[in-house]
Amino acid sequence: MTLTELLVVFVLFAALLVAGAIALFPALKAWSSQMDRVQIQRSAQAGLEKALRQLRLANQFQNDARQAIRFRVLEGGVQRFYIIYLYSPNDPIFNNAFTATSYQLRQVSIASLGAVFPNPPSQYGTGTLLMQEVKSPSAALPTTRISVLAGNLVANMDLFLIVNPEAI
């Protein structure tokens, strides 16, 4: 075999490797994107399970115009208040301006203060992290909504998670 033949074989082999890499790159990118989606979905499912365990025990709900669910649970003879709300470090206070693009879904537990639902300004940003990358309620559709419906009997959460560039 001559040097010219070896160079031709080497060039053809290199061309095949480059063509194979180019063909596999989109598949690897799609696989990586799908793995990210699966991870976010699993995280979301775990977060919702945490919230649902407490919501199932609730004996009173209160609607909150600030995209939150407030509820009360009787635990061992003690009333505990819980608030599930959207949090972003970009929003300095607990309000419904929703200037950030994504939020965290958090649940904070507040000791009983009687029969009145407490206001949580001092607890904003604290509590258990349930979910990350929740789409802002002020974003274009689909949008996130948290509310209590039907005479304080039904808690409703429509949550959309951001997976660039899609929403789940």
Please give the share of residues in helix: 25-40%
Shape estimate = elongated
Low-confidence spans: none
Structural class: alpha+beta
Give your account of this protein's structure:
- The protein has one helix spanning 3-56; strands at 58-64, 68-75, 78-87, 102-111, 128-135, 145-149, 154-158, 162-163, 166-167.
- The longest helix has 54 residues, at 3-56.
- It has 168 residues and is of the alpha+beta class.
- The N and C termini lie far apart (59 Å).
- The radius of gyration is 25 Å and the shape is elongated.
- The chain is built from one helix and nine strands.
Topology (elements, then pairings):
Blueprint: H1 3-56, E1 58-64, E2 68-75, E3 78-87, E4 102-111, E5 128-135, E6 145-149, E7 154-158, E8 162-163, E9 166-167
Antiparallel strand pairs: 1-2, 2-3, 3-4, 4-5, 6-7, 8-9
Tags for this model:
single chain, 168 residues, five-stranded antiparallel β-sheet, two-stranded antiparallel ribbon, elongated
Tell me briefly what this model is:
The protein has one helix and nine strands, in the order αβββββββββ. With 168 residues, the chain is α+β, with helices and mostly antiparallel strands.
